Amino acid sequence: MKTKNSSIKTPGLKLFLVAPMILLALLVISLNTSAQQTTKVKTETTQPASDKDGMTDGAYQKVDEMPVFPGGDAALLKYIGENTKYPKDAKDKRIQGKVIMRFKVKEDGSVSDVSVLNGVNPSIDAESIRVIGTLPKFTPGKLKGKSVAVWYMVPITFALN
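The structure assignment produced for this chain is given below.
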């Protein structure tokens, strides 16, 4: 008699346990499909447009000879350090961090299209843009012996003592 009673309750219990498992599996599959579609859209929209020669947004990223700041990379970082003024509001709030700047060194060596790739704070970002805009001319980058516009990136670190 005990065997009959337990076998009658078991199908109901099995259904009670299996139904949530099926719903959970459907939910996971649905979320996984949704995440894959979202990732695909993000990838397509964040890639810069480049042409067949490797030019991206009007300048190259890879060239035979990179642009050179007068005096080299050490002189570039020294120039940035000497000409950067810590914004008062950021100093008062004790905001620190590293700003990654991107700019174009044009065919004539001048700097243009300055932008912040990774910012810290609006006033610190604005100061970084200002300083990069004051850079003197570089020796331009070269591709196949010809001067070309090249994208250049440089970090600017803001740190309080």
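Interim note for the steering committee: The radius of gyration is 29 Å. The chain has a mean pLDDT of 79.
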